[in-house]
Amino acid sequence: MLSPTRVHRLRSRSPLSLRSRRSFSNASHHLPLPFRFTMPTSKAQPDANSKVLILGAGNFGSCLAEHLGDSDHRVFLWSREEPLVKHFNLHHKNLKYLLEHDFSKNITAVGPELPDGEFVNEMDVLLFAIPTQFLRENLKILNRSLNDKAKLPLLIFVNKGIEIGTDALTLEIIADTCGADVAKAATFISGPSFAKEIVRRRPTSVSVVSYTEAEANKTAALFHQPHFRCYTGSDPIGVELAGALKNVYAIAAGMSDGLGYENNTRAMIITRGLAEMTCIGTAYGASPLTFLGLAGVGDLFLTCSSSSSRNYTVGYRLGQGESLKAIISTLGSVAEGVTTANGVKRIIDKLGVKAPIAEQVYEVLYNGARFYKRAQTAVQELMDLPPSRELELPPTAGGPARELMEKLGLVD
Ligand SMILES: NC(=O)C1=CN([C@@H]2O[C@H](COP(=O)(O)OP(=O)(O)OC[C@H]3O[C@@H](n4cnc5c(N)ncnc54)[C@H](O)[C@@H]3O)[C@@H](O)[C@H]2O)C=CC1
Ligand SMILES: O=C(CO)COP(=O)(O)O
Predict the structure, then answer these.
(1) ipTM of the assembly?
(2) pLDDT per residue over 382-392, tens digit each?
(3) What is the pLDDT of residues 105-139, one digit of tens each?
(4) Is-cis flag, bond preceding 112, omega within 30?
(5) Where do the annotations place substrate binding (predicted)?
(6) Are 334 and 131 in contact, with CB atoms under 8 Å apart?
(7) Whether residue 299 has its Cβ less than 6 Å from ligand 2
(8) Catalytic amino acids?
Protein backbone atom coordinates (compact mmCIF):
# COMPACT_ATOMS: atom_id res chain seq x y z
CA MET A 1 0.00 0.00 0.00
CA LEU A 2 1.40 3.43 -0.86
CA SER A 3 1.83 5.94 1.86
CA PRO A 4 -0.10 9.02 0.77
CA THR A 5 2.34 11.29 2.51
CA ARG A 6 5.44 9.85 0.87
CA VAL A 7 6.93 12.13 -1.74
CA HIS A 8 7.60 10.19 -4.92
CA ARG A 9 10.15 11.86 -7.09
CA LEU A 10 10.95 10.78 -10.57
CA ARG A 11 14.54 11.83 -11.06
CA SER A 12 15.99 9.37 -13.52
CA ARG A 13 13.50 7.48 -15.57
CA SER A 14 15.10 5.42 -18.28
CA PRO A 15 14.52 7.31 -21.49
CA LEU A 16 12.22 5.61 -23.93
CA SER A 17 13.64 4.81 -27.28
CA LEU A 18 12.20 6.69 -30.19
CA ARG A 19 12.16 3.45 -32.16
CA SER A 20 8.70 4.02 -33.58
CA ARG A 21 8.18 7.15 -35.63
CA ARG A 22 5.17 5.43 -37.07
CA SER A 23 1.67 4.67 -35.93
CA PHE A 24 0.75 1.93 -33.46
CA SER A 25 0.25 -1.62 -34.63
CA ASN A 26 -2.70 -2.11 -36.95
CA ALA A 27 -4.04 -4.90 -34.76
CA SER A 28 -5.32 -2.55 -32.07
CA HIS A 29 -7.14 -0.32 -34.53
CA HIS A 30 -10.71 -0.35 -35.61
CA LEU A 31 -9.88 1.77 -38.61
CA PRO A 32 -6.51 0.33 -39.70
CA LEU A 33 -3.69 2.81 -40.22
CA PRO A 34 -1.50 1.96 -43.19
CA PHE A 35 2.15 1.69 -42.07
CA ARG A 36 3.48 3.82 -44.91
CA PHE A 37 2.55 7.00 -43.04
CA THR A 38 5.45 8.65 -41.22
CA MET A 39 4.21 10.19 -38.03
CA PRO A 40 5.46 13.53 -36.66
CA THR A 41 7.25 13.51 -33.31
CA SER A 42 8.10 16.26 -30.84
CA LYS A 43 11.61 17.67 -30.52
CA ALA A 44 12.98 15.52 -27.70
CA GLN A 45 12.28 13.05 -24.96
CA PRO A 46 11.29 15.16 -21.94
CA ASP A 47 13.87 14.34 -19.26
CA ALA A 48 13.77 14.62 -15.49
CA ASN A 49 13.92 18.42 -15.57
CA SER A 50 11.68 19.31 -18.45
CA LYS A 51 10.11 22.71 -18.96
CA VAL A 52 6.35 22.31 -18.95
CA LEU A 53 3.73 24.96 -19.73
CA ILE A 54 0.26 24.10 -18.46
CA LEU A 55 -2.56 26.14 -19.98
CA GLY A 56 -5.54 26.44 -17.66
CA ALA A 57 -5.16 26.82 -13.89
CA GLY A 58 -8.48 25.25 -12.90
CA ASN A 59 -8.84 22.07 -10.85
CA PHE A 60 -7.22 19.75 -13.34
CA GLY A 61 -4.53 22.07 -14.74
CA SER A 62 -3.39 22.92 -11.20
CA CYS A 63 -3.49 19.27 -10.19
CA LEU A 64 -1.34 18.19 -13.12
CA ALA A 65 1.04 21.10 -12.51
CA GLU A 66 1.48 19.75 -8.99
CA HIS A 67 1.98 16.20 -10.25
CA LEU A 68 4.81 17.30 -12.57
CA GLY A 69 6.25 19.92 -10.21
CA ASP A 70 6.41 17.26 -7.55
CA SER A 71 8.68 15.18 -9.81
CA ASP A 72 11.13 18.06 -10.27
CA HIS A 73 10.02 19.39 -13.63
CA ARG A 74 10.07 23.15 -14.11
CA VAL A 75 6.38 23.94 -14.43
CA PHE A 76 4.70 27.14 -15.64
CA LEU A 77 0.97 27.38 -14.96
CA TRP A 78 -0.90 29.84 -17.15
CA SER A 79 -4.02 31.51 -15.82
CA ARG A 80 -5.99 34.26 -17.52
CA GLU A 81 -6.79 35.70 -14.09
CA GLU A 82 -4.17 38.15 -12.80
CA PRO A 83 -5.10 37.94 -9.08
CA LEU A 84 -4.74 34.16 -9.25
CA VAL A 85 -1.26 34.46 -10.83
CA LYS A 86 -0.05 36.93 -8.20
CA HIS A 87 -1.53 34.99 -5.29
CA PHE A 88 -0.10 31.69 -6.53
CA ASN A 89 3.44 33.04 -6.84
CA LEU A 90 3.30 34.64 -3.39
CA HIS A 91 1.64 31.82 -1.43
CA HIS A 92 1.84 28.66 -3.58
CA LYS A 93 -1.92 28.37 -3.25
CA ASN A 94 -4.62 28.54 -5.92
CA LEU A 95 -7.16 31.26 -5.09
CA LYS A 96 -10.11 29.39 -6.62
CA TYR A 97 -9.42 25.67 -6.94
CA LEU A 98 -7.97 22.92 -4.69
CA LEU A 99 -8.00 25.52 -1.95
CA GLU A 100 -6.49 23.31 0.74
CA HIS A 101 -3.44 22.33 -1.26
CA ASP A 102 0.08 23.74 -0.85
CA PHE A 103 1.62 23.66 -4.31
CA SER A 104 5.18 22.69 -5.25
CA LYS A 105 7.79 25.47 -5.35
CA ASN A 106 8.71 24.16 -8.82
CA ILE A 107 5.57 25.80 -10.22
CA THR A 108 5.48 29.42 -11.40
CA ALA A 109 2.18 30.95 -12.39
CA VAL A 110 2.21 33.04 -15.58
CA GLY A 111 -0.46 35.26 -17.19
CA PRO A 112 -2.92 36.83 -17.65
CA GLU A 113 -1.75 37.17 -21.29
CA LEU A 114 -0.95 33.98 -23.14
CA PRO A 115 2.85 33.41 -23.15
CA ASP A 116 4.62 34.75 -26.24
CA GLY A 117 6.34 32.75 -28.98
CA GLU A 118 9.81 32.96 -27.45
CA PHE A 119 8.56 31.52 -24.16
CA VAL A 120 6.47 28.80 -25.83
CA ASN A 121 9.37 27.70 -28.02
CA GLU A 122 11.56 27.13 -24.97
CA MET A 123 9.08 24.60 -23.59
CA ASP A 124 9.55 20.82 -23.83
CA VAL A 125 5.89 20.15 -23.05
CA LEU A 126 2.61 22.03 -23.57
CA LEU A 127 -0.35 20.68 -21.62
CA PHE A 128 -3.85 21.98 -22.33
CA ALA A 129 -6.33 21.86 -19.42
CA ILE A 130 -8.79 24.34 -20.92
CA PRO A 131 -12.49 23.39 -21.20
CA THR A 132 -13.36 22.20 -24.71
CA GLN A 133 -15.52 25.22 -25.60
CA PHE A 134 -12.55 27.59 -25.17
CA LEU A 135 -9.79 25.47 -26.67
CA ARG A 136 -10.13 26.65 -30.28
CA GLU A 137 -9.69 30.38 -29.47
CA ASN A 138 -6.55 29.66 -27.42
CA LEU A 139 -5.05 27.20 -29.94
CA LYS A 140 -5.51 29.74 -32.74
CA ILE A 141 -3.28 32.17 -30.84
CA LEU A 142 -0.74 29.57 -29.68
CA ASN A 143 -0.37 28.11 -33.14
CA ARG A 144 1.47 31.27 -34.15
CA SER A 145 4.21 30.18 -31.74
CA LEU A 146 4.38 26.64 -33.14
CA ASN A 147 5.85 27.82 -36.43
CA ASP A 148 8.54 25.11 -36.62
CA LYS A 149 6.46 21.94 -36.91
CA ALA A 150 9.67 19.87 -36.97
CA LYS A 151 10.48 21.07 -33.43
CA LEU A 152 7.18 20.67 -31.66
CA PRO A 153 7.02 20.41 -27.89
CA LEU A 154 5.28 17.30 -26.56
CA LEU A 155 1.57 18.19 -26.75
CA ILE A 156 -0.90 16.89 -24.17
CA PHE A 157 -4.68 17.43 -23.99
CA VAL A 158 -6.89 16.48 -21.02
CA ASN A 159 -10.26 18.12 -21.73
CA LYS A 160 -13.34 15.89 -22.07
CA GLY A 161 -16.01 17.35 -24.29
CA ILE A 162 -17.52 18.01 -27.71
CA GLU A 163 -17.38 21.53 -29.15
CA ILE A 164 -20.72 23.27 -29.35
CA GLY A 165 -21.72 24.41 -32.85
CA THR A 166 -19.24 22.17 -34.71
CA ASP A 167 -19.68 18.87 -32.79
CA ALA A 168 -15.89 18.57 -33.12
CA LEU A 169 -13.69 16.39 -30.94
CA THR A 170 -10.45 17.92 -29.68
CA LEU A 171 -8.46 16.11 -32.38
CA GLU A 172 -10.41 18.02 -35.02
CA ILE A 173 -10.08 21.35 -33.19
CA ILE A 174 -6.30 20.81 -33.17
CA ALA A 175 -6.26 19.90 -36.88
CA ASP A 176 -8.35 22.99 -37.75
CA THR A 177 -6.23 25.42 -35.78
CA CYS A 178 -2.70 23.95 -35.92
CA GLY A 179 -2.74 21.55 -38.86
CA ALA A 180 -2.74 17.79 -39.39
CA ASP A 181 0.85 17.18 -38.24
CA VAL A 182 0.21 18.76 -34.85
CA ALA A 183 -3.01 16.72 -34.45
CA LYS A 184 -1.18 13.48 -35.34
CA ALA A 185 1.53 14.21 -32.76
CA ALA A 186 -0.97 15.25 -30.06
CA THR A 187 -1.45 13.00 -27.05
CA PHE A 188 -4.58 12.63 -24.93
CA ILE A 189 -4.89 11.71 -21.27
CA SER A 190 -8.25 10.43 -20.07
CA GLY A 191 -9.58 8.12 -17.39
CA PRO A 192 -10.93 8.02 -13.83
CA SER A 193 -8.96 10.83 -12.24
CA PHE A 194 -10.47 13.35 -9.85
CA ALA A 195 -8.01 16.23 -9.43
CA LYS A 196 -8.41 16.40 -5.66
CA GLU A 197 -7.44 12.72 -5.28
CA ILE A 198 -4.37 12.96 -7.54
CA VAL A 199 -2.92 15.82 -5.49
CA ARG A 200 -3.35 13.61 -2.42
CA ARG A 201 -1.40 10.89 -4.29
CA ARG A 202 -4.18 8.34 -4.22
CA PRO A 203 -3.37 5.46 -6.62
CA THR A 204 -4.79 6.41 -10.04
CA SER A 205 -4.58 5.03 -13.59
CA VAL A 206 -5.31 6.71 -16.92
CA SER A 207 -5.27 6.00 -20.65
CA VAL A 208 -2.67 7.89 -22.71
CA VAL A 209 -3.27 7.78 -26.45
CA SER A 210 -2.00 9.26 -29.69
CA TYR A 211 -1.80 8.41 -33.35
CA THR A 212 1.98 8.55 -32.83
CA GLU A 213 3.22 5.78 -30.57
CA ALA A 214 6.45 7.56 -29.60
CA GLU A 215 4.46 10.55 -28.37
CA ALA A 216 2.06 8.47 -26.25
CA ASN A 217 5.10 6.72 -24.74
CA LYS A 218 6.72 10.06 -23.88
CA THR A 219 3.58 11.35 -22.18
CA ALA A 220 3.21 8.10 -20.25
CA ALA A 221 6.85 8.29 -19.09
CA LEU A 222 6.44 11.93 -18.08
CA PHE A 223 3.40 11.19 -15.89
CA HIS A 224 4.18 7.72 -14.61
CA GLN A 225 4.72 7.64 -10.84
CA PRO A 226 4.37 4.99 -8.14
CA HIS A 227 0.92 6.43 -7.43
CA PHE A 228 0.01 7.17 -11.06
CA ARG A 229 -0.02 4.53 -13.80
CA CYS A 230 -0.42 5.25 -17.51
CA TYR A 231 -1.64 2.72 -20.06
CA THR A 232 -0.93 3.65 -23.67
CA GLY A 233 -3.18 3.16 -26.68
CA SER A 234 -3.83 4.22 -30.23
CA ASP A 235 -7.49 5.17 -30.47
CA PRO A 236 -7.65 8.92 -29.77
CA ILE A 237 -11.11 9.21 -31.32
CA GLY A 238 -12.48 6.44 -29.08
CA VAL A 239 -10.83 7.83 -25.95
CA GLU A 240 -12.05 11.35 -26.66
CA LEU A 241 -15.59 10.16 -27.34
CA ALA A 242 -15.55 8.05 -24.16
CA GLY A 243 -14.35 11.00 -22.04
CA ALA A 244 -17.02 13.29 -23.48
CA LEU A 245 -19.88 10.78 -23.37
CA LYS A 246 -19.33 9.61 -19.80
CA ASN A 247 -20.09 13.15 -18.62
CA VAL A 248 -23.58 12.93 -20.14
CA TYR A 249 -24.27 9.61 -18.37
CA ALA A 250 -22.89 11.05 -15.11
CA ILE A 251 -25.62 13.70 -15.37
CA ALA A 252 -28.17 10.88 -15.85
CA ALA A 253 -26.89 8.95 -12.81
CA GLY A 254 -26.89 12.07 -10.64
CA MET A 255 -30.41 12.89 -11.77
CA SER A 256 -31.61 9.41 -10.80
CA ASP A 257 -30.06 9.74 -7.32
CA GLY A 258 -31.48 13.26 -6.99
CA LEU A 259 -34.94 11.94 -7.77
CA GLY A 260 -34.55 9.46 -4.92
CA TYR A 261 -34.01 6.30 -6.94
CA GLU A 262 -31.52 3.84 -5.46
CA ASN A 263 -28.67 1.47 -6.33
CA ASN A 264 -30.48 -0.71 -8.89
CA THR A 265 -31.36 2.32 -10.98
CA ARG A 266 -27.83 3.76 -10.88
CA ALA A 267 -26.36 0.36 -11.88
CA MET A 268 -28.83 0.20 -14.76
CA ILE A 269 -27.80 3.67 -15.96
CA ILE A 270 -24.08 2.84 -15.76
CA THR A 271 -24.46 -0.46 -17.62
CA ARG A 272 -26.89 0.72 -20.27
CA GLY A 273 -24.83 3.92 -20.53
CA LEU A 274 -21.77 1.83 -21.34
CA ALA A 275 -23.75 -0.07 -23.99
CA GLU A 276 -24.90 3.25 -25.52
CA MET A 277 -21.39 4.73 -25.43
CA THR A 278 -19.98 1.65 -27.14
CA CYS A 279 -22.66 1.75 -29.86
CA ILE A 280 -22.12 5.47 -30.52
CA GLY A 281 -18.33 4.95 -30.59
CA THR A 282 -18.54 1.98 -32.92
CA ALA A 283 -20.85 3.75 -35.37
CA TYR A 284 -18.52 6.77 -35.21
CA GLY A 285 -15.59 4.55 -36.24
CA ALA A 286 -13.81 4.05 -32.91
CA SER A 287 -12.80 0.69 -31.46
CA PRO A 288 -15.50 -0.86 -29.20
CA LEU A 289 -12.68 -2.16 -26.98
CA THR A 290 -11.71 1.39 -26.04
CA PHE A 291 -14.97 1.67 -24.08
CA LEU A 292 -13.89 -1.20 -21.84
CA GLY A 293 -10.78 0.73 -20.81
CA LEU A 294 -9.99 3.35 -18.19
CA ALA A 295 -11.27 6.20 -20.36
CA GLY A 296 -14.51 4.27 -20.95
CA VAL A 297 -16.06 2.17 -18.21
CA GLY A 298 -13.40 3.34 -15.71
CA ASP A 299 -14.32 7.00 -15.91
CA LEU A 300 -18.01 6.25 -16.43
CA PHE A 301 -18.12 4.25 -13.21
CA LEU A 302 -16.20 6.93 -11.29
CA THR A 303 -18.28 9.90 -12.33
CA CYS A 304 -21.66 8.11 -12.18
CA SER A 305 -21.10 7.06 -8.59
CA SER A 306 -19.56 10.04 -6.83
CA SER A 307 -20.77 13.43 -5.71
CA SER A 308 -17.19 14.63 -6.34
CA SER A 309 -18.16 14.69 -10.03
CA ARG A 310 -19.44 18.05 -11.24
CA ASN A 311 -21.53 16.35 -13.92
CA TYR A 312 -23.12 13.98 -11.39
CA THR A 313 -23.78 17.02 -9.18
CA VAL A 314 -25.53 18.88 -12.01
CA GLY A 315 -27.79 15.84 -12.52
CA TYR A 316 -28.40 15.41 -8.80
CA ARG A 317 -29.46 19.02 -8.36
CA LEU A 318 -31.73 18.83 -11.44
CA GLY A 319 -33.33 15.72 -9.94
CA GLN A 320 -33.87 17.69 -6.72
CA GLY A 321 -35.76 20.33 -8.69
CA GLU A 322 -33.23 23.17 -9.19
CA SER A 323 -33.07 24.94 -12.53
CA LEU A 324 -30.09 24.41 -14.83
CA LYS A 325 -29.37 28.14 -14.79
CA ALA A 326 -29.19 28.22 -10.97
CA ILE A 327 -26.95 25.15 -10.89
CA ILE A 328 -24.48 26.41 -13.52
CA SER A 329 -24.22 29.82 -11.90
CA THR A 330 -23.27 28.32 -8.53
CA LEU A 331 -21.23 25.25 -9.54
CA GLY A 332 -17.96 27.23 -9.58
CA SER A 333 -16.35 24.89 -12.10
CA VAL A 334 -17.01 23.42 -15.53
CA ALA A 335 -19.42 20.50 -16.13
CA GLU A 336 -18.59 19.54 -19.72
CA GLY A 337 -21.56 17.16 -19.98
CA VAL A 338 -24.02 20.07 -20.19
CA THR A 339 -22.65 21.44 -23.46
CA THR A 340 -21.59 18.00 -24.69
CA ALA A 341 -25.17 16.65 -24.45
CA ASN A 342 -25.98 19.00 -27.33
CA GLY A 343 -23.29 17.63 -29.64
CA VAL A 344 -24.07 14.05 -28.61
CA LYS A 345 -27.73 14.49 -29.58
CA ARG A 346 -26.74 15.68 -33.05
CA ILE A 347 -24.15 12.90 -33.45
CA ILE A 348 -26.70 10.23 -32.44
CA ASP A 349 -29.24 11.62 -34.91
CA LYS A 350 -26.64 11.74 -37.70
CA LEU A 351 -25.42 8.20 -37.04
CA GLY A 352 -28.92 6.79 -36.53
CA VAL A 353 -27.83 5.09 -33.29
CA LYS A 354 -30.28 4.35 -30.48
CA ALA A 355 -29.07 6.03 -27.29
CA PRO A 356 -32.24 6.68 -25.26
CA ILE A 357 -30.48 7.71 -22.01
CA ALA A 358 -28.35 10.34 -23.76
CA GLU A 359 -31.46 11.60 -25.58
CA GLN A 360 -33.38 11.94 -22.32
CA VAL A 361 -30.50 13.88 -20.72
CA TYR A 362 -30.60 16.24 -23.69
CA GLU A 363 -34.39 16.64 -23.35
CA VAL A 364 -34.17 17.43 -19.62
CA LEU A 365 -31.32 19.93 -20.10
CA TYR A 366 -32.67 21.71 -23.15
CA ASN A 367 -36.43 21.09 -23.24
CA GLY A 368 -37.20 20.88 -19.56
CA ALA A 369 -38.67 24.09 -18.20
CA ARG A 370 -39.74 22.23 -15.05
CA PHE A 371 -36.64 20.14 -14.48
CA TYR A 372 -37.90 17.91 -11.69
CA LYS A 373 -41.04 16.96 -13.65
CA ARG A 374 -39.05 16.48 -16.85
CA ALA A 375 -36.48 14.28 -15.08
CA GLN A 376 -39.26 12.10 -13.65
CA THR A 377 -40.85 11.81 -17.09
CA ALA A 378 -37.46 10.88 -18.56
CA VAL A 379 -37.12 7.90 -16.23
CA GLN A 380 -40.69 6.78 -16.96
CA GLU A 381 -40.17 7.07 -20.71
CA LEU A 382 -36.97 4.99 -20.48
CA MET A 383 -38.74 2.30 -18.46
CA ASP A 384 -41.67 2.27 -20.93
CA LEU A 385 -39.44 1.48 -23.94
CA PRO A 386 -40.38 -1.82 -25.61
CA PRO A 387 -38.19 -4.83 -24.69
CA SER A 388 -35.09 -5.11 -26.87
CA ARG A 389 -31.96 -7.22 -27.30
CA GLU A 390 -29.38 -6.34 -24.67
CA LEU A 391 -26.15 -6.08 -26.65
CA GLU A 392 -25.97 -5.29 -30.34
CA LEU A 393 -23.22 -3.27 -31.95
CA PRO A 394 -24.11 -1.23 -35.05
CA PRO A 395 -22.13 -1.81 -38.23
CA THR A 396 -19.42 0.72 -39.00
CA ALA A 397 -18.08 1.85 -42.31
CA GLY A 398 -15.70 4.21 -40.63
CA GLY A 399 -18.28 6.92 -39.96
CA PRO A 400 -17.10 10.38 -38.91
CA ALA A 401 -13.79 8.85 -37.76
CA ARG A 402 -12.89 8.13 -41.38
CA GLU A 403 -13.62 11.75 -42.36
CA LEU A 404 -11.45 12.98 -39.51
CA MET A 405 -8.63 10.61 -40.40
CA GLU A 406 -8.86 11.79 -44.02
CA LYS A 407 -8.47 15.34 -42.73
CA LEU A 408 -5.31 14.23 -40.89
CA GLY A 409 -4.03 12.47 -44.02
CA LEU A 410 -4.12 9.09 -42.28
CA VAL A 411 -6.35 7.40 -44.84
CA ASP A 412 -6.85 8.07 -48.54
N1 LIG B 1 -11.29 18.24 -12.49
C2 LIG B 1 -11.01 17.00 -12.82
O3 LIG B 1 -10.90 16.13 -11.91
C4 LIG B 1 -10.81 16.59 -14.23
C5 LIG B 1 -11.09 17.46 -15.29
N6 LIG B 1 -10.89 17.05 -16.58
C7 LIG B 1 -11.18 17.92 -17.71
O8 LIG B 1 -10.24 19.00 -17.74
C9 LIG B 1 -10.85 20.16 -18.33
C10 LIG B 1 -10.66 21.32 -17.37
O11 LIG B 1 -11.37 20.97 -16.19
P12 LIG B 1 -11.12 21.66 -14.79
O13 LIG B 1 -9.74 22.17 -14.66
O14 LIG B 1 -11.59 20.70 -13.77
O15 LIG B 1 -12.15 22.88 -14.91
P16 LIG B 1 -12.28 24.14 -13.93
O17 LIG B 1 -13.67 24.64 -14.08
O18 LIG B 1 -11.78 23.78 -12.58
O19 LIG B 1 -11.25 25.19 -14.55
C20 LIG B 1 -11.41 25.67 -15.84
C21 LIG B 1 -10.24 26.57 -16.19
O22 LIG B 1 -10.42 27.03 -17.53
C23 LIG B 1 -10.20 28.43 -17.55
N24 LIG B 1 -10.95 29.06 -18.63
C25 LIG B 1 -12.26 29.36 -18.66
N26 LIG B 1 -12.54 30.00 -19.80
C27 LIG B 1 -11.39 30.10 -20.50
C28 LIG B 1 -11.05 30.68 -21.74
N29 LIG B 1 -11.94 31.29 -22.52
N30 LIG B 1 -9.75 30.56 -22.14
C31 LIG B 1 -8.84 29.96 -21.37
N32 LIG B 1 -9.11 29.43 -20.19
C33 LIG B 1 -10.37 29.49 -19.76
C34 LIG B 1 -10.67 28.91 -16.17
O35 LIG B 1 -10.09 30.17 -15.88
C36 LIG B 1 -10.14 27.80 -15.30
O37 LIG B 1 -8.80 28.02 -14.98
C38 LIG B 1 -12.33 19.79 -18.56
O39 LIG B 1 -12.49 19.42 -19.90
C40 LIG B 1 -12.55 18.59 -17.67
O41 LIG B 1 -13.56 17.74 -18.16
C42 LIG B 1 -10.36 15.83 -16.84
C43 LIG B 1 -10.06 14.96 -15.83
C44 LIG B 1 -10.30 15.26 -14.45
O1 LIG C 1 -13.56 13.53 -15.49
C2 LIG C 1 -13.45 13.58 -14.30
C3 LIG C 1 -12.73 12.58 -13.51
O4 LIG C 1 -12.17 11.59 -14.30
C5 LIG C 1 -14.07 14.70 -13.56
O6 LIG C 1 -15.45 14.58 -13.67
P7 LIG C 1 -16.39 15.85 -13.52
O8 LIG C 1 -15.99 16.79 -14.62
O9 LIG C 1 -17.77 15.33 -13.64
O10 LIG C 1 -16.09 16.43 -12.16
Answers:
(1) 0.99
(2) 999 999 999 99
(3) 999 999 999 999 999 999 999 999 999 999 999 99
(4) yes
(5) 160, 310-311
(6) yes
(7) yes
(8) 246
